[in-house]
Amino acid sequence: MILDNLQSLRFFLPELTLILAILVVILCDITFKSLRNVLNPLLTMAALVLAFYFTLQLNQAGDATLFRGMLATDSFAQFFKIFLLLAAFLVLLGSLHSEELSQVHQGEFFVLLLAVTVGMILMSNSIHLAMLYLSLELVSLTSYIMVGYLRNDRLSNEASLKYILFGAISTGSMLYGFSLLYGMTGSLSLFAIRDALLAQGVHGFNQFTILLILVLTLAGFGFKTAAVPFHFWCPDVYAGAPTPVTAFLSVAPKAAGFAILLRFFFSGLTQSVGSQWGLVSGINWPIVLIAISVLTMTLGNIAALTQNNLKRMLAYSSIAHAGYIMMGAVVLTRDGMKSMLIYMFIYLFMNLGAFHVVTIIYNSEKTFDIEDYKGMFHRAPFLSTAMGVFMLSLIGIPPFAGFLGKLYVFGAVINKGLFWFAVVGTLNAAVAAFYYMRVVKAMIIEEGNGNTAPLQISFLNQALLVALLLPNILLTIFWNPIDRWTAASVKLFGGL
Amino acid sequence: MITLSHYLLVSAALFSLGILGVMTRKNAVNVLMGIELILNSANINLVAFSRYSSHTIDGQMFAIFVIVVAAAEVAVALAIILTLYRILSTVNLDQADSLKR
User: Most buried among A399, A407, A496, B80, by the most CB within 10 A?
Assistant: First the structure.
């Protein structure tokens, strides 16, 4: 079904809600001076919930392309809408009682959060190169501002400058790749690109060009997903940004980046062979992704070993996780894509959880140094236990949910016969155990400096901690719904 | 006679100069100018391909959007450079190094 502009609006309700909410929150921020600190977060929350409701309503609508082939609405898009709205909601709750953000006026923060959410949703739906570029830039521009949100803080500003310079170069290279792809195929729509590539065949000099295009476009996707060798911004930006923003960046834009990577490669550069996906002859993109995946997880894990700043360590760990997630893309099977969705969904809870603990401890201790976490168990037993769970989940130790994610990803790779790839992944998980366990050891086993005053944790932060903790424990036991949901979500418009 | 290849050569040269400028310059504003070169090289490509090899105006439409986004990007980047300048009193990238450990 190809819908024109007016017909599309019905399917565009979640995004429209968020866009309307952006305007309402801005107006509220400048008109109700006394109430705005209460109203802004409530309005933002209401908008996210309403958008979530409309997204669920869309479920029965069926597949279609919106706005004359700009966006797709399918079950894949549905998954990412739910995922991204959930991530934005959790980050919003986590940012409310953060000492870092409360130093400055927060009105714009909610607006930026809504704008970046709209951008990410559009990103995961786009099937047109122009839409893809525009939505990616919308996400990038708003997240540059969010990183530099602490105006008077030197680190926050430097992080923001690094982010925008790296981001502009990466997306610029991606754009150059898009322009070459447009020249080769004469079209900007992903489906038309695939048809053109299939019709003319890729051989001879074109094979070199398509490799160049792959490298250039992967600069853009790699930048969003923080994959090696486009990861240089990641540790500095994560360390400098306010912690709730770091938590957000490490999960949501990364997932949107993977969504767009899957759309680009599976809708644009893959053909269906019977009921399976097959390569367009002459374009062997899985090889490129395998190399990037191996490099990403290895470098991420090794660099994380020597970090003393917990935010930097989690930054490198998030790079490594991008490598694990990418493993699912190279196998070109439904299982592979399903495993990526499952991994991302679980990663949302374990990583946001870890960063939430960092936020809570920074609120009273003003430190990110792992050394200062020693003896935390005596001061906040529940918080330390929760951090232990998040860390074990990030390693992938059963019975926590992270294990389920790794199981699916490695399983998909082994099913395809790539045993060595699964071995590399497992070795990496073993290396990762060292630095995650270091945090657990510091918090639970080691003795602190004698300070035994209990840590002050607000009720909201405690409730959020429980909300993030539960999926980490329960998803391994009740894995059936998520298995069915993600299996149904592996359905791209115009594909299989 | 100016053919498609001429446009492509110009855009490839601009892209390379942009990357070179980004890699070698220490002044944040100069790096931004390098980024502009990269974006405009893609614009030349898009318009040239739209004119010569495709029968649609998709490419020209895309180029206009890119120009708008580039303007927005520079506005945000300059704002960030300005706030950093208030703190550091310099726009030299080598001195924005407090995140390195």
Answer: B80
